Amino acid sequence: MSEPSARVRVTGPPRRRAQDVRAAGTREIDAETALGEVFMRSLLREQLSLALRVLAALALTVGLLPLLFHVFPGLGDVRVGPVPVAWLLLGVLTYPWLVLLGWIYVRRAEHNERDFADLVGSVDE
What we know:
elongated
């Protein structure tokens, strides 16, 4: 049997003010200093870049399907079993692709935010 851990008496929340506990980078952002603006600009730039990459992937796949059917009109007559290829591409395969893109976007955006929080928290005064 293991030894019981020492008891700790909790009487309430710490008495320090929230501003004293906050990281220096967070205070820079709240104070809207030049350093805080650099932090925020870097986060916004990274999130915009991610959004544009996901949008480009969507445009190059789903967005070009109408052009594909226009350039190759015979593709509209092709069937896989009883189902036309156009229905498979637009009605079946598009939705899992959108879910995958959304999942990738959310994971990368959260990763960017974690990196940003680590960066802001690691700034020394």
